[in-house]
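Note to self: keep these together.
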Amino acid sequence: MRKALIVSAIVAAGAAVASADITKNPDLGNYWNPIGANGTYVYADSFVADGTNVYNLGTWLDSLGSGGSDLRFEVWGDTGGAGPDPFNVIASTGTLSIGDTSGLQYYQANATGGLTSGNMYWFIITGVGETGPGYYQTGGHTQNSQYNDNGTFWYSNDPSGISFDGQRLTPEMAFHVGTIPAPASLALLGLGGLAAARRRR
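Structure:
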């Protein structure tokens, strides 16, 4: 009984903070377009990390019947006032061959990378170096409707994805960043649950 109590306390405590996702749902439908290897090359939207390890990335896309394009979902670092840093790729899904879609649909893939909670980062959709006949629209999200993260949307028409010509625009882009606490944080949490179980005993 004692062992079961300790295990359940640790599991319950871990479940309480196991996920610190950032999700900006599309509340404006299809909005930003076109993104892909044959349109705008990079879309970037800021967020502040709640968790410390990325485990997946996703966004809402609509090919508008164009055939779509290969894309990557990534997390980039922040330059400290000059927007996203293309030389600091923290997490990437790798190439995603999504193809043609019918309406605005959610797409998600695994990605891993370490974040510092409280720091600003950028969710990226990029078609730099990718191929495909078409492009996508992404979902729009009303600026600053939930998160205190500056709500900044930037885009790049540069084939290298380095120079951003569309800056500090509204509304935001809809996206999802799945994050969890670092293993060390989970271990400390488990020890806290163990101590609580012992006190109850």
